[in-house]
Amino acid sequence: xxxxxxxxxxxxxxxxxxxxxxxxxxxxxxxxxxxxxxxxxxxxxxxxxxxxxxxxxxxxxxxxxxxxxxxxxxxxxxxxxxxxxxxxxxxxxxxxxxxxxxxxxxxxxxxxxxxxxxxxxxxxxxxxxxxxxxxxxxxxxxxxxxxxxxxxxxxxxxxxxxxxxxxxxxxxxxxxxxxxxxxxxxxxxxxxxxxxxxxxxxxxxxxxxxxxxxxxxxxxxxxxxxxxxxxxxxxxxxxxxxxxxxxxxxxxxxxxxxxxxxxxxxxxxxxxxxxxxxxxxxxxxxxxxxxxxxxxxxxxxxxxxxxxxxxxxxxx
Length: 316
Ligand code: AKB
Prior knowledge:
Layout: E1 5-8, H1 13-26, E2 31-35, E3 45-48, H2 54-64, E4 68-71, H3 77-80, H4 84-104, E5 109-115, H5 139-158, E6 162-167, E7 169-171, H6 184-193, E8 198-200, E9 208-212, H7 213-225, E10 237-238, E11 242-244, H8 246-253, E12 262-264, H9 268-273, H10 283-289, H11 297-315
Parallel strand pairs: 1-2, 1-4, 2-3, 4-5, 5-6, 6-10, 7-9, 8-12
Antiparallel strand pairs: 9-11
2-amino-3-ketobutyric acid is lined by residues 76-77, 115-117, 140, 167, 169, 180-182.
């Protein structure tokens, strides 16, 4: 059967890039991007879908004969704390809707994005292993733990092929993240290119796991395309890029912008970050489906600056 992909949350940081990469891979006619609002710049099939409405997901699945869903819609860690009950409701409800539709229409595969936010005080903060204790303190993290368990439940109970990775903070130039604790690591590059001082909401030495967008999207596709026998973890796989602090990123940026200035005004996001891992052990993903990141701090910095300079020169 032809692969027909539905991406829910296609306007977001990962969704935008994943849509383009999957269009190149499977053909534009086989990828349906969807989100709450139409992305006017989107080039391909786009459907407006509110994933809290199960009937709307069913409609699109039937209309296009969807075989796989990538469910990327969620309210992230920092934004989620503003309205905890709404965040829980949206994150969990949309995921359960996707799982139910996938079960009812016998879909081949489903992708679930989990996060390093699933970890809390009970997990070692360095080289956090895949099976560490999960006691998150944000509602976003709680919803992701819940989502991972539902993924495993649908796999065990109904044989649904649900696959998932725990994304670190994602650094990319194609679109802005929204409402996360790791968002500073994108914003900092924009300020550098615009020759502005960057005020960081985390302390200078707060190390967090980060990954470049190309690696994150490649991991997503690699786990989805891996032979089924290789997928041994049915909650979610840790994937690591590199561990970075604001000070380390700033100092790398100074290689290209020696006058770059950063100051620090930690806010509530510092309290979220201090509970998260500093670095991640992704040996299970490496072993089971051959995962390996390609980007280091220098290649991320060099690519971010080059691409953002291009973008700003085009729009200024
Ligand atoms: C966030 O900061 O909330 C996200 C994440 C790590 O899942 N980027």
